[in-house]
Amino acid sequence: MTTLTLADVHALHEKVRTERPLVHNITNFVAMTIAANVLLAAGASPAMVHSMDEVEDFGRIARALTLNIGTLSSDWIAGMKLAAAVYKAAGKPIVFDPVAVGATRLRNTAAADLVAMGPTVIRGNASEIMALSGVAGLASKGVDSSASSNAALDSAVALAKSSGAVVAVTGEVDYVTDGTRTVAIEGGHELMPLSTALGCSLTGLVGAFVAVAPAFEGTVAALAVYAAAGAIAGKRVKGPGFLPQELCDALYALDLEGLKTNAAIRSI
Ligand SMILES: Nc1ncnc2c1ncn2[C@@H]1O[C@H](COP(=O)(O)OP(=O)(O)OP(=O)(O)O)[C@@H](O)[C@H]1O
Ligand SMILES: Cc1ncsc1CCO
Ligand SMILES: [Mg+2]
């Protein structure tokens, strides 16, 4: 298999910058501003809207949908399901972020229902991907991962096979799999999990890339761009406080040289 090169990744980032795809995000209250800024800095156009009454109209103009169950309540579930049905019918990509699945029955049921609707991509941390793929007895710590991404790799492959989605599991090393092909993406910074909603924001960025590229390639490219920008930002800050701002500045300025110095993609 030919692995996506960092030059291919850069070309897809330029495509995002040129086409500026509108990405419709139904995300959590914590992530809304951070994720919108990440999308803008990377060159895409975000809409953070969750009203059920606007789903059909946004479904006509947006090029991708992202669904994030971080601050879920039962009335939002119906909106997410309607949105998934609208984008599915329009043949537009859907990216699902199963925040804290495994922690509550509400999340477990909603996540299972949304996976059954056939999202294009599922992006989560290790605990979430393991819980979603049915690893029993996992102690959920809520929104933060209590496992390494490496430990979740088998679960990611199983989930990709059972759901038909491309699955991205993030952590110190990120993995993307479609059940057959698997690649690892290296980069990022150890401060990233100490700044909230950076995973949720990455899910939004995956939406922008799969709007302009096939699911597997778009997901790998989004993660590689984010890994490079995260590494650059992590070197600039003194702690997690200004990491989101530096990450946005790094995404905005990212070029091929920055990608090559700060991220790596390898087939496994
Ligand atoms: N130890 C680490 N070293 C380098 N990068 C990391 C590390 N941990 C996480 N990251 C990066 O941080 C980003 C978010 O991944 P993470 O797995 O922390 O998401 P998450 O738990 O869903 O986040 P959140 O729910 O707070 O939005 C990814 O780009 C990932 O590669
Ligand atoms: C902290 C937090 N709580 C619910 S969603 C969220 C953002 C990170 O997932
Ligand atoms: Mg998360």
UniProtKB/TrEMBL annotation:
It catalyses: 5-(2-hydroxyethyl)-4-methylthiazole + ATP = 4-methyl-5-(2-phosphooxyethyl)-thiazole + ADP + H(+). Its EC number is 2.7.1.50. GO terms for molecular function: ATP binding; hydroxyethylthiazole kinase activity; magnesium ion binding. InterPro entries: Hyethyz_kinase, Ribokinase-like. Its cofactor is Mg(2+). One of its GO terms (biological process) is thiamine biosynthetic process. ATP binds at R123, T170. Pathway: Cofactor biosynthesis; thiamine diphosphate biosynthesis; 4-methyl-5-(2-phosphoethyl)-thiazole from 5-(2-hydroxyethyl)-4-methylthiazole: step 1/1. Keywords: ATP-binding, Kinase, Magnesium, Metal-binding, Nucleotide-binding, Thiamine biosynthesis, Transferase. Substrate binds at M48, A197. Catalyzes the phosphorylation of the hydroxyl group of 4-methyl-5-beta-hydroxyethylthiazole (THZ). Belongs to the Thz kinase family. HAMAP family: Thz_kinase. This is Hydroxyethylthiazole kinase. It comes from Pleomorphomonas diazotrophica. The gene is thiM.
